[in-house]
Amino acid sequence: MVSKRKKKYESGEGNRYVSRKTALKMLQLSLKDFRKLCILKGIYPREPRNRKRAQKGATGIKTLYHLKDIQFLLHEPIIWKLRDYKIFAKKMGKARALRDFETIKRTLENRPHLTLDHIVKERYPSFIDALRDLDDCLTLLFMFSTFPSLQHVPRDQSALCRRLTIEFLHAVIASQTLRKVFVSIKGYYFQAEIKGQTVTWIVPHQFCFVPQSTLEVDFRVMSTFVQFYCVMLGFVNFRLYHLLNLHYPPKFAVSSADATEKTLVDEEAFVSERVAALNVPLFCTGRDTTAEEEVEIDQFPMIEDPTKLEEIKQEAEKVKKHKTLFKGLKFFLNREVPREPVVFTIRCFGGEVSWDKLLFVGATFDESDESITHQIVDRPSLGKQYISRYYVQPQWIFDSVNARELQPVEKYFLGAVLPPHLSPFIDKTREQYVPPEERALEDPSLAEMNPEKEETEEESETDEVEKKNESENEGEMLRNEEEREDGNESEIHEKDKVREQKKKRMSVSMGVVAREDPAEKKRQERQEYKLREKMIKKKHRNLYRSMMKGRAERGKEAWLLQKKRRLHDEQEKAKHKAEKKEKRMKAAADT
Amino acid sequence: MAAVGTGKKRKFIVSGRNEYVPDASEELVDTRHAYQDEYFLTSITNDDDSSDEDDEELDESGKNDDDGDDEVVFEDDDGEESGSEDSGASSLGDEITGDADYDSGSDYSEYGSEETEHEEEGEVEEEEEEEEEAEERKNDESSKGIKVSDKSEEKESAQSKPLFKLKQTTSSKINKSSTKLSSTILRNGNKKNVMNELAQADENRTIQQADDEYKSDTSDEEDIRNTVGNIPMNWYDDYKHLGYDWDGKKVMKPLKEDELDSFLKRMEDPNFWRTVRDPQTGQDVVLSDADVDIIQRLQAQKIPDANFDDAAPWVEWFTSEVMQTPIVRVPDHKRSFLPSRIEARKVAKMVHAIKMGWMKPQEEKKKSYEPKFFMLWQTDEGVEHMRRIQNHIPAPKRHLPGHAESYNPPPEYLFDKRELKEWNKLRTTPWKRKLHFIPQKYNSLRAVPAYDRFVNERFQRCLDLYLCPRARKMRLTIQPEDLLPQLPNPKDLQPFPTVMSMVYEGHTDMVRSITVESKGQYMVSGSDDLTVKVWEISTGRCLRTIPVGGVVRSVSWCPNQALALIAVAADRKVLLVNPGVGDHLVCSKTDVLLEEAPEQDVVVSERVKTAVQWEQASEDVWKNGIRVIINHFKEVKQVAWHGRGDYFATVMPEGQNRSVIIHQLSKRRSQVPFSKSKGLVQCVLFHPIRPFFFVATQKHVRVYDLAKQELVKKLHSNSKWISSIAIHPGGDNLLVGTYDRKMLWFDLDLSTKPYQTLRLHGTAVRGVAYHKQYPLFASGSDDRSLIICHGMVYNDLLQNPLIVPLKRLSNHEPYNDFGIFDVIFHPTQPWVFSSGADKTIRLYT
């Protein structure tokens, strides 16, 4: 019996991957359609363990897909839709060329339409999976919601993005799951914790759309992504609303007074605008969920470490407090404040907020309302001011949220120079350099120290001179003592000699304490360490080297930051001093 | 449509002529009829037969009386017209110069009426003809005034009856071409009238000229006198004539005026500026005031007719009202009033389709494009089983921003000039940048602009998501310290030498080799200054200096404690020296032993004889302690004693197959153990216990069994050049130092490959040594450092030796890139000696 000869690459890694070209052949699709399909289905190339084997011995780098992924694509019904679309495009082209408007109209009406519902289910088998992958989705949709109608981005797509993102914001407000906010130069980073998953998204600053050259950005690709993400976010919203007992296409509990007064021209537009205001609680179906959360959770000593349990408890308490950070506070936004992110943040933490009626719909109270506690102002000065409220800059809100407690308003007053806005996303265990502001946040005593220092600077200046004098005095004293000792020693030596000369008797001399030079000790240790370093196995040597290099670089960076900060602080101090001096001089001149 | 066109045209022409009509009409009003109204349109039919036409038209007009509602035109067949028959082709020049007297008003108003009569196409042509003829007639008139008068009298009767013509404007399609609604004006045939006209000739001339102009800009048959037709006149450029007249005679070009003539004309003729040459006839034409006016108006882009009222009320010639009697007599088709059965069937089908829900209204369809959302996941965690992507690797999340990205970062995160420069420098390789953006500080939130790379970054992320190959990578969570081997703390491995305690100075050149007495009291060093010095270890005193007359490359103390003997390799000699230190008894005994050479009972082979000769020291060198001299045929590099102290081996790297020679002291005999050269021998060593002999060539160490006389092992060093070897007192471990910075620890029981390679030194290792008692070994190298290591060899064969580097001692001074040459341990104490290129020997304790 002759066994069949085994050929190369018929099994194992060589059989597991297919190149893109092969995939196209298998699927009978054009590259454009294949890419679209990959985007929609979430298929991506794989990095094989052994590239040469995976490419069946071919050199160079090929884009490799899992054979099973491609086989999976083969069964996808939307492939047929893509083919239909090709036919549709041909028909349209022909009709257009013939100026056959009747056909154009008819074909347009019957154009193929992709339904992606099943793909969402397939890509995200559970709701948690969908939440986990929500970051890119939200960021992209928030960006698209600001887009004008472009060549490959139809108007209704960006409108849908706008609708869905607003709905999502409402869900976050209702569930009070926002945890961190960060204003970066790129946009507003929001981090929410939904069902135990941290979802971070970026809302760009206003007017983020810049016309892009086609070489750099292909809007078609992004539009395809958005097409899928829209469907996905829609389903996520639906479930979120359902979990919060809210009516899904958002509805208001009570139609507002305006609505009854005016005859509504377009109710849909009216509602969507109200929804966009983010300021009105949505219509609840069923019981209020907040009450449910209040229920005390029984504790079972599952975790053995009592300190850990305590920590967890404290954390839970903190989060609970955090959720109602702005409860009872009433905010009024000046017109220059970016409305949407600020309103969203305030509402997430239980605050009441309003703005100028002319600015946007949905304002609930006027500026003249005496019960307003904080007015958010982002301009250097303001004409009419009420005594009953604080005028603070918007950073106060974000900093308070990140610090999980209301920050002192003094630093954020109208026209004040703002303290630095710190990122709440820093991993404190990894970062080597911690700016002093952050340290102060953690340890309030440091913060108190700093201003005092500034105040006492002048005093210290005068003190310094005295101290110097003192130290000089001390130095002199020491020297004297030393001299005295030296003298003593010489005397002793002479005596010894005499004694030795006289009689060589056994004696016990005073031992001298051998002090260990710390620098020397350090040097020794370093030397030892270096010798040990040389004993690293060859296998690990490169890894060790690269790790040490990285560590050194990080250290250098931290050192650089520290140095820069020190220089900056010194400069500031000098400036401060000079200013004070000038003032004093002026005062003297005046008198 | 044609009718509308004509109507319009007529209107236009009427007003166009208004300018000069009045002056004629004034007279006419006086002399002729009172019929004239505002639209004073006169027409002169061309020929005599025009009257016939008129008759016909009369009929027609009568027929169409009902519809023709607007214009009343008078037609008068002028007697003068008949004269036109006679008129030949008269030159235009005549017209201009000749004092033509005729009723211009009547003459030119003709056009308007004429035009109405014609079909669009034919109209103009006919008009032209008529004009032409009329003109000619008039010209004749002027010349043959009497004749004209006669004729006019004749025709008076016919003309006297005014013809009322109601023009039909709703054009009848059928006989359009034949319809000629000519309007005539009654003209007086009186001479008186004619005379009157003659008197007005001057004024009228302008009109005539206007007529000419009119001719020239209308189509085909403009100038009747030239029959060439409407052709480019430049075809006649080369000829003397311009064309042909009615008789087929050539129309000659007028004589060309020379400059003088034209100048004179310009000077004299007041009308020169309005004189134009007619290309058709080659004649000069003087433009009338009216023409000039029209030209000016045209230039100003106004309507040429000054009197034209463009805001005049619209006259609707064609009403939307249905005529009572249709123009077409064909009865309507039956299908125009009976419902169609086919259509009914189609409608019924549609109705049925709508009822069955097959057909849907438009709006419903459109709405279906909006995505509809429903509860896709019933539970949070529940996973429905379905086909999915194979072994899904979720995309990694984006890094979260640090302080530097803040809109108001702490000041230290902002770039200074150097960082900014560096950032800009990496424009072509942006991935090497530390940050992908430049940190910015804004004083207020209001001032923060949109990030211009935002869209781009999102796009890049999208590309990453669908184009970037994914693989699971294990992330290291270890610290670099975890990679360090777990070694005991050096402090626990004491004692070992830690500090330099003694420097032996005295040599004047590099000290290449040192050796220590087996009791550990004295030390001997050999140097490049051609001497060997004997030192007392404890005091550092140089006891003796023995000049040996050659560069000392190696010194070695005889391990036999009963002898006080040192083997010194100086150039080509190996000297056996009695240092004369230590126990006197031993010294003297050694002297006695070496005083006389034992008898040689064996015949020494030629091969050995040529390589080595033993020689008894002469008297003068005996004083220095030299007892025996062994002359070699090549430079000796190393001397190594056997553990018993009877045999010793010498190495001559250049000696080829006789590079290693083993000498027996007691018999003063030498033998060459190898018949074949295995490479450049670097050094040799005797096994401390077993009869093994180690020979280190450049890359390998060969182990020979001396008893069996065979190769036992060949150790591969994996290095380029071995410098020195040392053997552990246990005899199972070998240490090899190489010039390529490595130290190799061979475990002879394990394999022929090094058990451990130590790269402790930065440069070539020149000397290695084991301690006899303590688990220590040391190495000295060109980087002036002496490294002490702990090298514990366990009795348990399963346990591998433990090697811990302990201490690095670098006290030697540099000298010509050399550092330490030789290293040796004290036999009993944990002390180590090193000899260096800086002419010193140092002791570390």
Automatic annotation (TrEMBL), chain A:
<dbReference type="GO" id="GO:0070545">
    <property type="term" value="C:PeBoW complex"/>
</dbReference>
<dbReference type="GO" id="GO:0003723">
    <property type="term" value="F:RNA binding"/>
</dbReference>
<dbReference type="GO" id="GO:0000466">
    <property type="term" value="P:maturation of 5.8S rRNA from tricistronic rRNA transcript (SSU-rRNA, 5.8S rRNA, LSU-rRNA)"/>
</dbReference>
<dbReference type="GO" id="GO:0030687">
    <property type="term" value="C:preribosome, large subunit precursor"/>
</dbReference>
<comment type="similarity">
    <text>Belongs to the pescadillo family.</text>
</comment>
<feature type="compositionally biased region" description="Basic and acidic residues">
    <location>
        <begin position="490"/>
        <end position="499"/>
    </location>
</feature>
<dbReference type="GO" id="GO:0043021">
    <property type="term" value="F:ribonucleoprotein complex binding"/>
</dbReference>
<feature type="domain" description="BRCT">
    <location>
        <begin position="321"/>
        <end position="414"/>
    </location>
</feature>
<dbReference type="GO" id="GO:0000463">
    <property type="term" value="P:maturation of LSU-rRNA from tricistronic rRNA transcript (SSU-rRNA, 5.8S rRNA, LSU-rRNA)"/>
</dbReference>
<dbReference type="InterPro" id="IPR010613">
    <property type="entry name" value="PES"/>
</dbReference>
<feature type="region of interest" description="Disordered">
    <location>
        <begin position="436"/>
        <end position="591"/>
    </location>
</feature>
<feature type="compositionally biased region" description="Basic and acidic residues">
    <location>
        <begin position="567"/>
        <end position="591"/>
    </location>
</feature>
<feature type="compositionally biased region" description="Basic and acidic residues">
    <location>
        <begin position="514"/>
        <end position="534"/>
    </location>
</feature>
<dbReference type="InterPro" id="IPR036420">
    <property type="entry name" value="BRCT_dom_sf"/>
</dbReference>
<dbReference type="InterPro" id="IPR001357">
    <property type="entry name" value="BRCT_dom"/>
</dbReference>
<comment type="function">
    <text>Required for maturation of ribosomal RNAs and formation of the large ribosomal subunit.</text>
</comment>
<keyword id="KW-0698">rRNA processing</keyword>
<feature type="compositionally biased region" description="Acidic residues">
    <location>
        <begin position="454"/>
        <end position="464"/>
    </location>
</feature>
<protein>
    <recommendedName>
        <fullName>Pescadillo homolog</fullName>
    </recommendedName>
</protein>
<dbReference type="Pfam" id="PF06732">
    <property type="entry name" value="Pescadillo_N"/>
</dbReference>
<feature type="compositionally biased region" description="Basic and acidic residues">
    <location>
        <begin position="465"/>
        <end position="482"/>
    </location>
</feature>
<keyword id="KW-0690">Ribosome biogenesis</keyword>
UniProtKB/TrEMBL annotation, chain B:
<dbReference type="GO" id="GO:0000466">
    <property type="term" value="P:maturation of 5.8S rRNA from tricistronic rRNA transcript (SSU-rRNA, 5.8S rRNA, LSU-rRNA)"/>
</dbReference>
<protein>
    <recommendedName>
        <fullName>Ribosome biogenesis protein BOP1 homolog</fullName>
    </recommendedName>
</protein>
<feature type="repeat" description="WD">
    <location>
        <begin position="504"/>
        <end position="545"/>
    </location>
</feature>
<feature type="compositionally biased region" description="Basic and acidic residues">
    <location>
        <begin position="135"/>
        <end position="158"/>
    </location>
</feature>
<comment type="similarity">
    <text>Belongs to the WD repeat BOP1/ERB1 family.</text>
</comment>
<feature type="compositionally biased region" description="Acidic residues">
    <location>
        <begin position="112"/>
        <end position="134"/>
    </location>
</feature>
<dbReference type="Pfam" id="PF00400">
    <property type="entry name" value="WD40"/>
</dbReference>
<feature type="compositionally biased region" description="Acidic residues">
    <location>
        <begin position="66"/>
        <end position="84"/>
    </location>
</feature>
<feature type="domain" description="BOP1 N-terminal">
    <location>
        <begin position="236"/>
        <end position="497"/>
    </location>
</feature>
<dbReference type="Pfam" id="PF08145">
    <property type="entry name" value="BOP1NT"/>
</dbReference>
<feature type="compositionally biased region" description="Low complexity">
    <location>
        <begin position="167"/>
        <end position="183"/>
    </location>
</feature>
<comment type="function">
    <text>Component of the PeBoW complex, which is required for maturation of 28S and 5.8S ribosomal RNAs and formation of the 60S ribosome.</text>
</comment>
<dbReference type="GO" id="GO:0043021">
    <property type="term" value="F:ribonucleoprotein complex binding"/>
</dbReference>
<dbReference type="InterPro" id="IPR001680">
    <property type="entry name" value="WD40_rpt"/>
</dbReference>
<dbReference type="GO" id="GO:0000463">
    <property type="term" value="P:maturation of LSU-rRNA from tricistronic rRNA transcript (SSU-rRNA, 5.8S rRNA, LSU-rRNA)"/>
</dbReference>
<dbReference type="InterPro" id="IPR019775">
    <property type="entry name" value="WD40_repeat_CS"/>
</dbReference>
<dbReference type="InterPro" id="IPR028598">
    <property type="entry name" value="BOP1/Erb1"/>
</dbReference>
<feature type="compositionally biased region" description="Low complexity">
    <location>
        <begin position="85"/>
        <end position="95"/>
    </location>
</feature>
<keyword id="KW-0539">Nucleus</keyword>
<dbReference type="InterPro" id="IPR012953">
    <property type="entry name" value="BOP1_N_dom"/>
</dbReference>
<comment type="function">
    <text>Required for maturation of ribosomal RNAs and formation of the large ribosomal subunit.</text>
</comment>
<feature type="region of interest" description="Disordered">
    <location>
        <begin position="40"/>
        <end position="183"/>
    </location>
</feature>
